Amino acid sequence: MATIEELIRFFSGARMAGVRAVVLTGAGDHFCAGLDLIEHWKADRSPDEFMHVCLRWHEAFNKMEYGGVPIVAALKGAVVGGGLELASAAHIRVIDHDTYFALPEGQRGIFTGGGATIRVSDMIGKSRMIDMILTGRVYQGQAAADLGLAQYITDGPSIDLAMELADKIAQNLPLTNFAICSAISHLNNMSGMDAAYAEAVVGGVVNTQPAARERLEAFANKTAARVRPTD
Questions:
Q1: Is 157 left (phi over 0), alpha (psi -120 to 50) or beta?
Q2: What are 143-183's pLDDT values in tens digits?
Q3: CA–centroid distance for 120 within its chain
């Protein structure tokens, strides 16, 4: 719970503090193993108490997904249970070949409470998420990337590529990044007609921002970097 409160504190003020991009990683050999089951067992919470625990998880992860600051998760080792829910709230996920993902709630006699039914199912599909919970299936390395649990896989430390991506993202205009990292999630929660209208409004604001004029001029003068395929 201390970790959740720290996430809420940090991401509540990140954009206003001028943070341009965030790299989120674990301090040890693993990214995150999720809910502290021993803490949960010792607390012996009531249904009402644990419902509010889950709501705090949702508040933290919503501030990440919708806060408008790009988050690159450098994943390593275990990304399990609530750790996968945490990772799924990031906008980009980078793994190495040893990183593995699991949702072992079914074997523990518990249920997801931090958004797996929303974000993980959105990443890999409802049927695959249900399979992970029911059977304890583990996905690792390239198989996890192919499934959609990460956008990048690297032979070196995930933190190195995550930092490289964050540096690149931070060069974008802040308002553009804000729209990408907040509006798209909101738009996906709307009906098609409402999303089309809201997208037009966001596009009207972002695409006419004064800070974009210099970049548009560079494109018009053919001095901007050209779009090229990458490996």
A1: beta
A2: 999 999 999 999 999 999 999 999 999 999 999 999 999 99
A3: 10
On whether the pTM is more than 0.90, the answer is yes
Q: 24: which 2 tokens?
A: 């989120």
DSSP letters for 23-82: EEE-SSSSSB--S-HHHHHHHT--HHHHHHHHHHHHHHHHHHHHSSS-EEEE--SEEETH
CB contact at 8 A, 74 and 28: no
Contact between 86 and 26 under an 8 Å Cβ cutoff? The reply is no
d(CA 51, CA 98): 34
Query: Tokens at residue 170, please?
Result: 């931070």
Buried b vs exposed e over 76-90: b needs ≥16 C-beta within 10 Å? bbbbbbbbbbbbbbb
Residues pairing with 75 in the sheet: none
Q: Which residues are catalytic?
A: 85, 105
Beta-bridge partner residues of 204: none
DSSP 149: S
- Token pair 């604001």 is found at 205
Strands ordered across the beta sheet of 139-140: 78-80, 100-102, 139-140
